[in-house]
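Sample entry follows:

_____
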Amino acid sequence: MKKRGFGLIMAIIFVMLVSSLGILGLNLATSKTTTTVNRYLHTQAEIYAKNFTEYVILRTLKHDYTLGCLDDLNATNEIFGFGAILTHVGNIGSCKGKIQLSNPKDGGILIIDVFVWALDNNQDDEPIQHNVKFHKRTLQKL
């Protein structure tokens, strides 16, 4: 009788050990998938930052500075949000720069800070947190 009870206890311990290993394996696989997705999104954010920087430079070159300064630019797509903060150095046309230089002939410089971040567009009940943010700074002579 004692031998049969001991076998039952050993079977319960074995089932608990196997289920614990299964849960650990599932948790590891899930965290690896999340890491892979975040790396992919970070790479995409770098590419979008470069492209949005070129878009901002194009907008600044087409802007008529006799009408005033070109302010911050923002955009979004289905995955990322984009923002550009423009800091004018020196005077450009009628635009008075936030940073003044001792020699006015050295003006016409633009500091472009581009920010890219992942949007949370999950339609499911469970929120997925993609903590992907990227910043790129560019100096552009106008």
Remarks:
- Strands lie at 73-76, 80-89, 109-118, 133-141.
- Helices lie at 2-62.
- The mean pLDDT is 83.
- Residues 2-62 form the longest helix (61 residues).
